[in-house]
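Lab manual, section 2.4: Encoding a predicted structure.

Procedure: take the sequence of the chain (100 residues), apply the prediction step described in section 2.3, and record the output as structure tokens. A sample record is shown.
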Amino acid sequence: MMLVVVVLLSAVLRMPYRTPVLLNSSVAQPFLDPWGLLLCRTYVYTNSAINPIIYSLVSPKFRLPSSGCAGVGWRSHRRAQLASAPPATAWTPEDADRRE
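Recorded output:
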């Protein structure tokens, strides 16, 4: 489902940019309206900016790591990891002899 949403949204947001590019290569007088081109570029940049939001809404595997980037939930997740970890012991050179 996430792949379908990302592909459809990418196609919709990139279409306003790709259409003038295709038309400009085949017409005598190209489309060079600066505001139109700025709007087309804004759609392309919006597509790139909205992808992580879509991933976090649709995919639970992406949600936890991305929440750490934003600072949301990272500390509580880290505390839970530390609480469930076994206690650390000091390593000594004798430990290496026992393994060999």
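Check your result against the sample. The chain has five helices and no strands.
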